Structures are given as structure tokens and as C-alpha cells.
UniProtKB/TrEMBL annotation:
Its EC number is 2.4.99.28. This is Probable peptidoglycan glycosyltransferase FtsW. One of its GO terms (biological process) is peptidoglycan biosynthetic process. It comes from Rivibacter subsaxonicus. Pathway: Cell wall biogenesis; peptidoglycan biosynthesis.
Length: 425
């Protein structure tokens, strides 16, 4: 009897301490305390939090759904072209939906893996990405399209190693900053190794060539270094070196110079039917869309005028069919998504989970930065560059790696919630 009373008293004290902790975290006296959290704490087991950031998941799902609809709309007429004559009208839609299904399965697996695993194995993921970037350059293994060798044929999809490199650099840079935290003020010891790693990736990507992917990867690495607390003067120096490198690459490449000149004056007769062909027709599509658009499926520019309408220039089709309202909704969705990811990262850092926090913010830079570049190219704000719109454009490996990267961010959020409720990650 006395032992039962003692056990009851002990449990009551534990529950009272739990309520006090929740009230200390901002809960009010009338707020309900989840029973599952009481049970897990009172039993001494780590808290098994079933909650997750549902608004973030819904935002991702809505972008994927709208992307699938617009990919179908942009590609449904492609079989009328001799180049795609052997394809059915639903060819690209079916492959896109298969990619989303595969990405969903991969995301379910990734969200189950604790961040400690990713932190431990981040260098090996980075090495694997570099090896695949080498493999894609080997004749017979890598697939070339329009003069670029960026894909490895895998049957179900053509895998693009540069997409894996974006995830790898986010993991590696986050782990690198955690390891170098004590010497981050010393340039040679803290920054030089990361610069070498970035240079290796840059050389491999420019050999494909894929300057757009390198720009995104450089932005991810630089952003994580800055958010990790690298000395401001060092950061400015590295930024100046990267900008100088891009300027030199453009200066010594005639076709890159032509792209810049075409971007500056897309309506010049010299460029309208050449380097500015995509940009000029993209701007025509936005102009036709006006405020409310021509209606879903009613785009004219997708009928062989606008190249790569289902990949790089999907936003132009959205602008023509759904108008300013549709484009504004997509821009707001990516802004909200990026802001939410950064919030999860800041929360993790506040909980002294630096690796998880820096990784999440790196993914925020990836999603927000790549979306900004793609939108800027479509709208004529930036020079034409072959980058897809994350989560929306057609592309199996891009959808797959986007989903895995965001699933790991969701894992960061789940572990944050576990810690804030007294559990263990």
C-alpha cells in the first residue's frame, strides 16, 4: 500500500513539474497538456512527438500539385512536334507523377533518419556526390543533351548528380562549420579547405557545363559559412573571389558573353531569334497573361514557340495561363516556404543544435535562391540560365532530391519539438 502511494506521489510530482515546464515555455494555465507527452515523460522514455510542421508540408504538397498540373499543360502538345512524335500526350505527366511518387517514398525514409546520422556521414555523402560528378563526364556513362553532359541514365529517370551535390554541400558545409567552430576566425585553417572543396565541384560542374548549378552550390556554401559566423572580412574576400571568377568565366567565353548582351537587349534583331529567343518569348507569355491569364491550357507560347516550357520556363506558362495572380501566388508560396525553413533552422540553433540549424538554413538558401534565379530568368530580371523551378518543373532527379532535402528539414523540426517538450532526439 505504502509503495503504491509513493509511486502515485512520484508520478504526480513528475506531472506537476511537466505542467510547470510547459507554463514556463509560454503556455497558459488553461492550456491542455498532451497526454502522450505526460505518459512518455512519466515513464522515463524519450518523448515520441507525433506532431510536425503541417503548414510546411501542405505548402510543399500544393507546389508539387500545381507543378504537376502545369507540367501537363506545358507538355501536352509536345507530341505534335517531330522531336517528340513517338511520345503520348501524357508521357511527361506520367513520368513526372512517377518521380513524385518515388520522391514521396524517399522522403518517408529520410524523415525517419536522425540528424546525428546525417552529421556523421555528411563527408561521405559529399565524396559520393563528387564521384558521381566525375562519372557523368565519362563517355558512355554520362548522357549528353544539347551539348551538355549532366545526366546518368538509370532507366526510370536520368539522374543529375548536380542535384545530389546541392544536398551534399549543405550537409558538408554545416558539418564543416561545426568542426571548425573554434577556429572560424582564422582564414587558412577555417575557410581554405572549404574553398578547395568548392573549387573541385566548380571545375567538375563547369566541365559539363552547368554554371547555374555551380552558382546555387556556391550560394549554399557561402550562406552557411556566413550564418556559421565566419569573419566578415573573410566572407567579403571569398565573395569577391567568386564574383571575380564568374566575371572571368563570362569574359573568356564567347557564348556566355552573347547571353549577357542578349539579356541586356532581348528585342535586338541580332538576338531575338538567337540567344534571346527564349527570353523574348517568355516575356511575350507574361504579357499575354495580364492579370487573370488566358485560362488553364490556353497558352500559345508553349506551342513550340517557347523552348523547354515544361522545365526551365514553366513559370512563363503559369504567367500566360494563370496571369499575374498565378505568378504572385507561386512567388508568395516560395517566399513563405523559405521563411519557414529559416525559422526551423534558427530554432534548432537556439536549441544548441548547430549542425541541424545550419543545414536547414542551407536548404532555405537552396530553395529560395534557385527559385529566385529561375523566376528572374523567366521575367527577364536575370540573364538566361538553365535552372528549374524547385518542386514544380519537370525533372525526376530534381524532384527526388528536393523532397529528400525538405524531408530532412522536417526531421530537424520534429527533433526541435521533441527537445522543447522534454524528450530526447
Amino acid at each position: 500500500m505504502s509503495s503504491a502511494i509513493t509511486a502515485s506521489t512520484s508520478m504526480f510530482a513528475t506531472l506537476r513539474a511537466r505542467v510547470a515546464a510547459l507554463l514556463g515555455n509560454g503556455a497558459k494555465s488553461g492550456d491542455a497538456v498532451p497526454v502522450r507527452d505526460w505518459i512518455s515523460v512519466s515513464s522515463g522514455q524519450p518523448a515520441r512527438l507525433l506532431g510536425f510542421d503541417q503548414p510546411l508540408v501542405w505548402c510543399i504538397v500544393l507546389l508539387l500539385a500545381l507543378g504537376a498540373v502545369m507540367v501537363y499543360s506545358a507538355s501536352v502538345a509536345l507530341p505534335d512536334s517531330p522531336r517528340f512524335a513517338r511520345y503520348s500526350p501524357t508521357h511527361f505527366l506520367i513520368r513526372h507523377l512517377l518521380s513524385i511518387a518515388l520522391a514521396f517514398v524517399a522522403a518517408l525514409v529520410a524523415v525517419q533518419i536522425p540528424m546525428s546520422f546525417w552529421e556523421k556521414h555528411a563527408p561521405w555523402v559529399f565524396v559520393g556526390a563528387i564521384l558521381l560528378l566525375v562519372v557523368v563526364l565519362i563517355p558512355g556513362l554520362g548522357k549528353g543533351v544539347n551539348g551538355a553532359r549532366r545526366w546518368i541514365p538509370l532507366g526510370l529517370m536520368n539522374f543529375q548528380p548536380s542535384e545530389l551535390a546541392k544536398l551534399a554541400i549543405a550537409l558538408y558545409a554545416a558539418g564543416y562549420m561545426v568542426r571548425k567552430m573554434e577556429i572560424k576566425e582564422k582564414f587558412v585553417r577555417a575557410v581554405a579547405p572549404m574553398a578547395v572543396a568548392l573549387a573541385i565541384i566548380g571545375v567538375l560542374l563547369l566541365a559539363e557545363p552547368d554554371m547555374g548549378a555551380f552558382m546555387v552550390i556556391a550560394a549554399i556554401a557561402m550562406g552557411i559559412l556566413f550564418l556559421g559566423g565566419v569573419n566578415g572580412r573573410m566572407f567579403l574576400l571569398i565573395t569577391a573571389v567568386l564574383v571575380g571568377a564568374f566575371v572571368l568565366m563570362i569574359s573568356f567565353s564567347e557564348w556566355r558573353r552573347e547571353r549577357i548582351f542578349a539579356y541586356l537587349n532581348p528585342w535586338d534583331e541580332k538576338y531575338t531569334l538567337g540567344k534571346a529567343y527564349q527570353l523574348s518569348h517568355s516575356l511575350i507569355a507574361f504579357g499575354r497573361g495580364e492579370i487573370f491569364g488566358q485560362g488553364l491550357g490556353s497558352s500559345v507560347e508553349k506551342l513550340y514557340y517557347l523552348p523547354e516550357a515544361h522545365t526551365d520556363f514553366l513559370l512563363a506558362v503559369i504567367g500566360e495561363e494563370l496571369g499575374f495572380i498565378g505568378v504572385a501566388a507561386v512567388i508568395f508560396a516560395f517566399f513563405w516556404l523559405t521563411r519557414r525553413i529559416f525559422h526551423i533552422g534558427r530554432q534548432a540553433i537556439a536549441l544548441d543544435r548547430v549542425f541541424a540549424g545550419l543545414y536547414a538554413q542551407g536548404i532555405g538558401i537552396w530553395m529560395g535562391g534557385q527559385a529566385f534565379i529561375n523566376m528572374g530568368v523567366n521575367l527577364g530580371v536575370l540573364p538566361t540560365k538553365g535552372l528549374t523551378l524547385p518542386l514544380m518543373s519537370y525533372g525526376g532527379s530534381a524532384i527526388l532530391l528536393n523532397a529528400i532535402a525538405l524531408a530532412i528539414v522536417l526531421r530537424v523540426d520534429i527533433e526541435n519539438r521533441q527537445l522543447m517538450r522534454g524528450g530526447r532526439t
